[in-house]
Design a protein that fits this description.
Low-confidence stretches: none
Mean pLDDT: 89
Oligomer: single chain
Strand content: under 5%
Radius of gyration: 15 Å
Order of helices and strands: HHHH
Helix content: 55-70%
Structural class: mainly alpha
């Protein structure tokens, strides 16, 4: 059996993850809580940025599998932006060093998101 974190199928990293709708609702609740405190949400923690990046990545994976590249391009771009935000968070707060790292392109950031989400999800007790 192939380790989902290292599979060539990008969706494999999300095997056993909560349903996408549940993840979207969790992210939206966190945004709502931040707004209720009068903040813009940029001070959210790692779990928020990880789960948000994973949601957008999962959407992009579905879009790419379903539609022509030009149709899926916006979903891919949005997933890359969200994944880059996670990488930036980890570089700032968790000591991730981008020097000499394989986390360079948007796809690299998405692959990083998949590895990190897979590890995080395996540690959860849902």
């Amino acid at each position: 059996m192939t380790d989902a974190a290292h599979s060539t199928d990008p969706a494999a990293a999300y095997a056993g993850a909560p349903r996408m709708v549940s993840e979207i609702l969790w992210v939206l609740r966190q945004v709502r809580v931040a707004r209720s405190f009068g903040t813009d949400g940029t001070e959210q923690g790692r779990e928020f940025w990880l789960r948000k990046a994973a949601v957008f990545d999962r959407i992009a994976i579905e879009e790419v599998a379903t539609y022509a590249p030009q149709v899926a391009a916006k979903a891919v771009e949005t997933a890359e932006v969200a994944a880059r935000r996670l990488v930036e968070y980890d570089a700032t707060h968790n000591g991730l060093s981008l020097r000499g790292s394989d986390v360079v392109t948007g796809e690299d950031c998405r692959a990083y998101t998949r590895r990190e989400y897979h590890a995080w999800n395996r540690a959860q007790l849902f």
